[in-house]
Amino acid sequence: MPRGLTAFRHLPIIPEQFSLVIPGDSQRTDFYMKLTTRGRYAVTAMLDLTIHGSTNPVSLGDISAREDISLAYLEQLFGGLRKAGLVDSVRGPGGGYRLARADDAISIAAVIDAVDESVDATRCGGNQNCRGDQACLTHDLWEGLSANIRDFLSDITLGELARRHALRNAATKTQTIKDMRPSAAG
């Protein structure tokens, strides 16, 4: 795990915002980096496929309905995911998509790469032309952050996210059952 991001390993992934906390500093600095809907939706759809496709292929229509992502958009995304070897399509009745590899062998970074998305914190897209034809004073800082985020996303797999989801659902169900029990007072 990249140094500096280890503290965030237990948190759910929120690709739109990364909060950076400097050890020993009482102030928090929020850093917003936009990951387009293309990358976010690809990760969401692949996680849905991981959770719901353990026994049978999953149709894009089912993913569309559960995740509120347009079917046409999913078709575009799954074209890239298939070309990258992350999913296989199954034709015919009961067809759909399934993971082409084990869920623990597919990193979040691989999913983002498959749909031609990048996570970049630099203003210049990594071209070192932030200030006309030169890199800005803080270019190396943002380039380093981009590399750390990439490493972070490379270390997280669909399998890990699916297990986190299952644990969260189990905890929610346990709390719901506790809430439904009659109280001992009375």
Question: Would you kindly provide a written description of the structure presented here, covering whatever features stand out?
Answer:
The protein is mainly α. The chain has a single domain (14-124, 135-163), classed as Arc Repressor Mutant, subunit A. 45% of the residues lie in helices and 10% in strands. The chain has helices spanning 37-52, 60-67, 71-83, 108-114, 139-154, 158-180, and strands at residues 17-21, 28-32, 87-90, 96-99. A two-stranded antiparallel ribbon has the order 1-2. The chain has a two-stranded antiparallel sheet with strand order 3-4. A hairpin with a 6-residue loop joins strand 1 and strand 2 (28-32). Helix 1 (37-52) packs across helix 2, helix 1 (37-52) crosses helix 3 and helix 1 crosses helix 6 (158-180). The longest helix has 23 residues, at 158-180. The chain is globular, with a radius of gyration of 20 Å. 27% of the residues are buried. The model is unreliable at 5-32 (pLDDT under 50).
